[in-house]
Design a protein that fits this description.
This protein is an all-alpha fold. It has two domains: 86 residues, Orthogonal Bundle (Rna Polymerase Sigma Factor, Chain: A); 89 residues, Winged helix-like DNA-binding domain superfamily/Winged helix DNA-binding domain (Arc Repressor Mutant, subunit A, Orthogonal Bundle). It is built from nine helices and no strands. Helix 6 packs across helix 9. The longest helix is centred in the C-terminal third of the chain and has 28 residues. It is globular, with a radius of gyration of 19 Å. It starts with a helix and ends with a helix.
Amino acid sequence: MLEGCRNNQRSSQKLLYEWLKDYGVNICYRYTSNYHEIEELISEGFIKVFKNIQLYDENLYGINEATFKGWFKRILINTCIDAFRKKHSATSMPFVDPETVQHEDKSATALDNISYKEIIEAIRELSPVYRTVFNLFAVEGMSHEEIAGHLGISVGTSKSNLFKAKENLKKILQKKMNYSLYA
């Protein structure tokens, strides 16, 4: 299939697209709640894959599904970051003095009995700025320095946005839990 894609064979490209599309949607879903944006991100990601598939080196990465999916995931995440950057320029991000940021209360307890679906829905309710920083930090495992570099913001702003994302997420989840207790 990869060799066919390298040779621009439409049938191989279609197989690769069908194999990875749902996986790609799940990745992009974390960065935007707009289905049309997800479709655009997926399309742009696959264009990048097909243009650069010769860069995927089986000798270096190995020939297995997991490593290729990891390569594809990195392309999609970078595509999502690029789209975020275009949509939200650094000038629209608030400057936050790191000295004034409150630190998270470590004694707060986690909400119990919340489904994965409810958590994902709550994350999608965050503002695009908070959702992006939260996903890059909590899901993708990037450091604040990496996030700042990718988004063109300061490390302090990244930390502040993560803190605010967590606080907003707690409020959203608590609200959902209170609603479900009385429903």
